[in-house]
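Fresh eyes needed here. I'd like your take on this protein's tokenised backbone:
***
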Amino acid sequence: MAKCRAWVIHEPGKIVMEEFELPKVAEDGALLKVEACGICGTDKHIYLGHFPTDQYPFIMGHEFIGTIVELGSRANETMAVFGGTLQVGDRVAVAPSSMGCGYCYFCLHSPHRQALCSNRSMIYGFISTRKAPGLWGGYSEYVYIVPRSYVFKLPKDMPMKRAILTEPGATGLRAVDRALNTGEPFLSQGLSVGRSVMVLGAGPIGLLIISAFRYSGAGLIISQDLFPSRLNMAKRLGADLLIDGNLPFAARLEQVRQATDGVGPDIVVEAAGSPAAFREALDFTRRGGKLIEAGNFTDAGPVEIKPFAICFQDLDILGCRYSPLLFKDVISMHQRTWLPVEEVVTHVFPLEELPKALEVTGSKDAGKVVITP
């Protein structure tokens, strides 16, 4: 029987290349040959032991794209396929999370927010290899696709460095979504053409948030980061004003206020993944503005805030977890945008060099790091 290779994490810091037998594809499943897989900051946190899980051993990697090489006879009936009937040879992106259960409280009351489902049956990149056939993550040559998966066809001619940004790009669009939600732009609420935006953090997620806001018609976009290389990239992706995060907070606040009629941005997005950045975001946001928390997806600890400031300034504070349905919009945006989003990908490593790729991820000169089998 044919075999493939995959990296299996057994515990924090211990990741081993192992062989797996290619499974027989069931009538409701599919086999995907991995083209590329992006390294998420969450994967780095898992590797370092900062993300608790009981799924060891497992294959990480949830930002994968690839080609369907085997397809069960009923796969199109059991999966949510976008872009037409799924066929062998199709190039696709697969959302990490499966469809919601349809009957829990959150599915019944918030069906458009699938990430809240209490009973999700599959999250690619986070499932133990003890569950057959084990090929559940993108740090592998193949991934087995199960029923109730979200599968999105990709244009054959879309460059890999754009296509691989589909999953993280969904967070960027969700930030725009949250800026729009409940907004009445004519009353200066929510996002509309010309509204000012500040994004704290210019890592891959922050950069994709900036590009999504620029594509969606935002006005002044302010980017803050600690590293000049990241700020330069933010400029290329649509930021107008660059703030050096190493400066004293008072100096940075003054720069932001001067650029926003003395009041602060309409919308502030925390994408640095730092509790301290969230605290700063509260002070940057204008009275009556919106603060969107998109960066603290792992628990980095608490931060002290004054609830009075939220109440007195009448702030809207929103979380940011995307719906898989946003994948189709990201694909459309990345197919059409004039912004050089592919430059967010700064490093590409072969599968064999995953440990090195994990080491590079998060370094000051690294954007999105990608592995290719």
Residues 166-180 form the longest helix (15 residues). The chain has two domains: 3-154+340-372, 174-318.
